[in-house]
Request: fold
Amino acid sequence: MDELLSIGDFAAECGLSPKMLRSYAAAGLLAPAAVDSSTGYRYYSTGQLHQARVIALLRRAEVPVEAIGRFFDDPDNDQLDRWEQQISEESTGRRQALAEARAALALGPTASPPRRSDASPSSKRGEEMSLTFTTGTATARGRRDTNEDAMVVNGAFCAIADGIGGLQNGEVASALALETINAAFAKDSTIAGLLRACAQANDALQRSTDGDATLGTTVTALAGTDDLGLVVVNVGDSRLYRLRGGRLELLTRDHTVTADMVREHELNAEDAESHPHRKVLSRAVGVGTTVEVDYSGVQRRPGDRFLLCTDGLYDSLSFDDLKAALAPDSSPQQSADQLVAQALAKDPEDNLTAVVID
Ligand code: MN
Reply:
């Protein structure tokens, strides 16, 4: 025989407050087993404790009270699966919004997304829509047997990747990463879409990894996004430079063990150049279950020229060589060809790739 408990005792047993119990009863959920007709006191039976505890747990999962009521009319596992799915979608949506907020903060107020109500055709939006790249590309395998660098040029999206791992793996990794990012960014050309594309490339490489053969690659991309204009994303030690008014600037930071140490003031830049771990990457796409991607907005002016290049290229040439080859009197293709030809003349051990963008 079930024992009757006062609302206070019952509340203490099941983890719901008396106030909640009263409001649930008003909504037709978990009605008291007995009500004293003279005092109005409510009593719950010990047999109701199990249901009350399940209700408390569903409320903690933020399932609405009405939905819980319907659930108890016909409890089934499918409904639990649907709630789980819903929670996972909500949390993905919240994480995405947070990523976009993080990106917007990093890019600053000048790059804020245009308001939809902005009817002016000369708005920043119109300008971003017309963002076009004029590009030149060149790549070579140097002294290696294969070229494990990859590149993609697709409208206002340019990317390079330097595959790691040797043998065929490097080639597979760099090509797969860029194919994945290019396809995903074509579908969603926002900053969030670009970051998601990088995460998808990481997943694709992780899935393709068989046995001990780890797939990994650097990725550096310059992209015109629909919402935040020109953006660079970077993982690894491939680079983006900008030539503006005769000045060459490096816009990315390398993710190598030594570059990280220099940033942390554990190593000075001079010693880093001869350090044995100089070429060891501290970050790469595909080597972990998730990947941290550097991204930032890129300010641009008419006449700016950009260079995406792998380490094989920038290791072979001096800063002044890079600057001279990028001189604005040559076309992007002429610049790319010149950069690779000059680097090849140094008989480099590594693959080299240059994408020049106006
Ligand atoms: Mn390389």
Remarks:
- The two ends are 84 Å apart (CA to CA).
- The pocket of manganese (II) ion is lined by residues 162, 310-312, 350-351 (CB under 6 Å).
